[in-house]
Design brief:
Layout (H helix, E strand, L loop, with lengths): L6 H11 L22 H5 L3 H5 L12 H4 L13 H5 L5
Length: 91
């Protein structure tokens, strides 16, 4: 989908589709490729307090469907496959 978007349009997606954009994290694909794509913090919030506490789960936000539906609105919902995301990685 990114190839169909202008650079300005792509940058609007970075807040959720990268880790730490505008907060000292993701800058661009060349400089910080390891922070590209959706990461834990996208759904669960910043992890710095969680990490500093030794892993206290109280510092991890529990997302709801509304968390995703801020951007994944009706016209995009068919392209959003939440179930595979929920069961991927650490889940």
């Amino acid at each position: 989908m990114a190839s169909d978007l202008t650079q300005a349009e792509q940058e609007k997606c970075y807040r959720c589709h990268t880790t730490g954009y505008g907060q000292g994290g993701f800058k661009n694909y060349k400089e910080t490729p390891e922070l590209a794509d959706v990461g834990c913090e996208t759904c669960h919030g910043p992890g710095s307090k969680h990490a500093a506490s030794g892993g206290d789960p109280a510092f991890i936000k529990k997302p709801t469907d509304k968390t995703c539906q801020k951007c994944h609105v009706q016209e995009r919902v068919s392209a959003f496959r939440k179930r595979p995301i929920l069961h991927a990685g650490a889940h």
